[in-house]
């Protein structure tokens, strides 16, 4: 996970540094997202694309996506030293960096694409985070963002019954008022409509919205959960492909991927 400038240095940071806190959300979402990105980038040529996996966690998502992104250079970025130690077993390039405190240790316009998977829901200041992602992307660069859907099909039913929606949390110490037993630190939740409007206002053009299943759905309901992915607005997980609007930003993929600061892992 990555942090923003208004994230407390104590509570949330300590929470995400806890090895017991989950840093991956299953291969189904990772594979669907990687397919979308592979289609957008096309086959790797003599000049492979640079893909930043911002909030790479332990690298398991990158491992699942690797066969689909063969030939492209995937660079993992995270502020958690513990997560990066684990990510090194799956990724050859990792950088320690934050979306705050001066931004990511990368030059403007250095990346062809950014993977931003299950991160935005953990941020206090998502506006500044998207500003930083725009900075490191080339004009027309791809943003592949995934996040839980507040309007997932079961959340609609739960709200009607007066039950706290899945994915939402009122405490970092325990689960209260909703199904589940795992605290994961969600601060922001989006519907498909809200997410599209937010990305558009942040300087991106939304190309496609797709759905993905959630591994936490009870086993008997998983076939239905996969079926609902055909209607992204009701799916468990939202997958969004957006592109940065051209603004003349400079930088090259090679320069940016090699750029490091004293904070790099």
UniProtKB/TrEMBL annotation:
<keyword id="KW-0489">Methyltransferase</keyword>
<dbReference type="GO" id="GO:0017000">
    <property type="term" value="P:antibiotic biosynthetic process"/>
</dbReference>
<protein>
    <submittedName>
        <fullName>Class I SAM-dependent methyltransferase</fullName>
    </submittedName>
</protein>
<dbReference type="Pfam" id="PF13489">
    <property type="entry name" value="Methyltransf_23"/>
</dbReference>
<dbReference type="InterPro" id="IPR029063">
    <property type="entry name" value="SAM-dependent_MTases_sf"/>
</dbReference>
<dbReference type="GO" id="GO:0008168">
    <property type="term" value="F:methyltransferase activity"/>
</dbReference>
<dbReference type="GO" id="GO:0032259">
    <property type="term" value="P:methylation"/>
</dbReference>
<keyword id="KW-0808">Transferase</keyword>
């Amino acid at each position: 996970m990555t942090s923003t400038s208004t994230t407390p240095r104590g509570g949330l940071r300590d929470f995400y540094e806890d090895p017991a806190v989950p840093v991956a959300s299953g291969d189904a979402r990772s594979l669907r997202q990687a397919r979308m990105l592979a289609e957008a980038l096309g086959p790797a040529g003599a000049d492979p694309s640079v893909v930043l996996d911002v909030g790479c966690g332990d690298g398991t998502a990158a491992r699942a996506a690797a066969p689909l992104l063969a030939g492209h250079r995937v660079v993992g970025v995270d502020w958690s030293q513990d997560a990066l130690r684990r990510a090194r077993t799956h990724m050859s390039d990792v950088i320690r960096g934050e979306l705050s405190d001066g931004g990511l240790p990368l030059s403007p316009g250095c990346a062809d694409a950014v993977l931003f998977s299950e991160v935005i829901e953990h941020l206090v200041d998502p506006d500044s985070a998207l500003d930083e992602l725009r900075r490191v992307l080339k004009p027309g660069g791809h943003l592949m963002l995934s996040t839980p859907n507040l309007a997932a099909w079961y959340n609609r039913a739960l709200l009607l019954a007066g039950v706290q929606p899945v994915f939402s949390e009122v405490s970092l110490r325990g689960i209260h008022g909703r199904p589940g037993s795992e605290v994961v630190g969600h601060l922001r939740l989006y519907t498909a409509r809200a997410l599209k409007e937010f990305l558009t206002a942040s300087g991106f053009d939304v190309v496609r919205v797709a759905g993905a299943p959630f591994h936490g759905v009870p086993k008997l309901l998983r076939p239905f959960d996969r079926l609902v992915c055909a209607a992204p607005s009701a799916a468990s997980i939202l997958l969004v492909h957006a592109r940065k609007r051209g603004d003349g930003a400079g930088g090259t993929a090679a320069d940016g991927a090699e750029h490091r600061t004293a904070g790099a892992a």
